[in-house]
Amino acid sequence: MVNSRQIEAFSEVALHLHLTVVTDAFGDSAIPMLKELLTYVGRLYHRLPEDVYRGQIVVVKSLDDSPVADGGLLYGSPDAVALPQSGRVMFQTFSNGAVRVWSSLDSIDLSKLAQSAIVYTFDQGKDTFFAGSRQATMLKLVAQAFSSNFGVPRFHSLKDALEDYRLRTARHTGCKILEKIWFDSNRIFFIPKPESLMRDSLVQFLNNVLGSEAQVRPEQNVNETEPVDIFIHWYMSQHLALIEVKWMGKSHNGVKITTEYGEARANHGAKQLADYLDENYRTAPLHAARAYLIVFDARRANTAADTRTISRPDGLKFENREITFQPAYHVDRLDFEVPLRFFCEPKCDA
Are 62 and 68 in contact (CB under 8 A)? Predict the structure, then answer.
């Protein structure tokens, strides 16, 4: 993982990489302005989730500290800025700490802006600087999956962690807590109401992986009726993740099958998450939140209350059966991650 000291080191490297571009265009007097711009970019990425941002980010530092364009919204402090979720957005930082923001811009003439300002852009994973008639794109100083050299890849690191849990823990029940979700040793049926154990297992895992970067908390209230299963807040930032845990399959109490859930249960979870996001934006509009739906899938074919063993065809029938989501929030919303289905493999007869 990339830490704050490494980010500062990358910023220092970037300063030297682009020093020539800036000084060739504007002379040595522009060096403090470049430092101000880089400082603001680093501060911006503590709030704006650039690792999942869809659009172009532009940051401008004017040579004479005058506005570079008409319009926009002026904020007295960077922390007061309501950040967008997508589209082309431009920030102009001023020496007194104020920020002017233009959002949903149809076009920006970067070459014109660069005649009297230092211009930084982040677009499609590339950090580029413009000054006068010069421009330079920064080489990747961190892993390719990390979007900007100046940002900490918080949401990407969470997604990678969940994928690891899916493959190494959920698939074959590789966790002492998760072992308790099963009614039977062959992992055919869940116990009644296994969600809390699934949540606890995932919380333990994420604390181990993200503990130095973020606070991972179970069952946090987002609205007045139901808490979200897992709430993650990254330290020194305003990045939040909301995780909802659901399951599909059958539960058994030792006498009978008590509950059977299919795709409707997963869709219910997606709707809950969308509502949580809406409520979170209402109560915490300055935070960048992202939703993650986790579905533990133990669907089996041809099972009854007295089933205790299962063949491979029946046990693995749903191994690759993806869920149809209606509506597809992960397609329609920019703040909703593609749902993750954790197929839980049974012990099958030879």
Answer: yes
In the predicted model, what is the mean pLDDT of the chain? Answer: 86
DSSP 3-state assignment of 216? strand
Question: Parallel, antiparallel, or unpaired for β 340-343 and 288-297?
Answer: parallel
Residue with tokens 């002492």: 176
Model confidence over 283-323: pLDDT tens digits? 877 777 899 999 999 999 999 999 999 999 999 999 999 99
Buried (b) or exposed (e) across 290-308, using 16+ Cβ within 10 A?
bbbbbbbbbbbeebeeebe
Contacts of 114 (CB under 8 A, 6+ apart): 25, 130, 131, 132, 133, 135
Residue 213, pLDDT > 90, answer no
Asked if residue 301 lies in contact with residue 318, where contact means CB atoms within 8 angstroms, the answer is yes
| One-character DSSP codes across 95-158 | TTS-EEEEES-S---HHHHTTSEEEEEEETTEEEEEETTEEEEPPP-S-TTS--TTS--HHHHH
| pLDDT for residue 146 | 45
Record the pTM: 0.71
Give me the sign of the Cα torsion angle 124, 240, 35, 82.
Answer: positive
Contact 252, 240 (CB under 8 A): no
In the prediction, which pLDDT does 4 show? 55
Tokens representing 103 are 């959002």
| C-alpha dihedral sign at 21, 106, 240, 297 | negative
Give the largest Cα separation in the chain, rounded: 82
- The domain spans of the chain are 4-137, 154-343
pLDDT tens digits, one per residue of 259-292: 999 999 999 999 999 999 998 888 877 777 899 9
CB distance 114 to 135 below 8 Å:
yes
